[in-house]
Amino acid sequence: MTQSVGPEEGRADTPEVNAKVSPDDSSLPQSVSVALDGTSQASSRNDAIILAKGKDPNIARYVVESAAGIRIVTAYGSPQQAYESRTTFSFKSGEHPVSGANGSFYIEDSKGDIHGAIMAPWARDSSGTSLPTTYRWERNTLVQKVDVPASANFPVVADPAWNYTWTAKIYAGSTRDIHGRMHTCFNCYFPVEGAPAAFPRPGQLLPLVVRLAPGFPTNNFTCIFGAENFIPGEYGPAGNTIDGDFAFNFNSGPGHIDGPGSMISFDFYGDKKAPGDPKASLLKMKFVVFANITNESPGGVPQPVYLIGAKNTWAKLLSNYTSAVTGVPGGEGQFWSWVN
Q1: Residues in contact with 127: Cβ distance below 8 Å, sequence separation at least 6, in sequence order
Q2: What are phi and psi of 234, to 5 degrees?
Q3: Strand pairing partners for 5?
Q4: What pLDDT is recorded for position 53?
Q5: Residue 127: which of 104, 155, 108 has the closest Cα?
Q6: Given the DSSP bridges, would you call strands 69-76 and 156-158 parallel, antiparallel or unpaired?
Q7: Whose CA is closest to 39, among 52, 29, 51?
Q8: For residue range 163-173, what is the model confidence (pLDDT) as tens digits?
Q9: Which of 96, 163, 155 is nearest to 123 (CA)?
Q10: Which neighbouring-strand residues pair with 53?
């Protein structure tokens, strides 16, 4: 992870944060540049946190880095007339935000490739109470609004975050098909020990564990199922679905080695945009996975090393599914492949 702070071009009084991420040697780097609107100065408090202040001493913005992205935390220290934070993205040519699952956004280019994800918004007061919050876009500026009741305990914090994504192209099945299969037998495809046979319910505690090898001690991966998003899609001429979306996410549960407040999101969506791909006509859907990991060394392993293991796990998910659809074991390179 590399990160720098400087004035945004054309707005000398507005700090800009530049982040570049490449979690493993086989992945292409992804980067983002954001201006912290409403602030006039920024300074690094340590290697992982940048503090930006504005005219109001009761509002501060923090940029917190991880191995896979940045969090942009706005802290309101006292009641305000309005609770809106503005973060302006310096998109490269062709980049633009597109709606993802469960309130998130992807940064997509003109080829349909994903250059990172903006996590769904959240906000809490100092007692830990969740507060209603929404995003809206004003051109390249992401505005997060928080509804703060009079009973809220201050400070109130709100947090959009940009994260690295792994994206794969899948040349078998459909969003409708994988939704049906995972609802029939979730642990037939989801490759983590302790996964239930039935598709999880919102709020369900999942006592997941991971071992380095059979017979080794388990690592705590207890999760709380968050939400599911399913858009069936339309049937094409051959009876297959040509679009649609199937996504779900987990939040870290008690003792999860990723740390409190961590999350992970999985998204299968139909997308025919694949310029330059010789197999574009065979493309059935894309798969995007991204996570926010609060623990810098989960299970004592540095995050970059840990992320390699995570990517290998989600490769098993794709292989499990394409093998079931095609009857051919494995399938990487033939029925699915990583984009990054």
Answers
A1: 153
A2: -105, 150
A3: 17
A4: 80
A5: 155
A6: antiparallel
A7: 52
A8: 999 999 999 99
A9: 155
A10: 41, 60
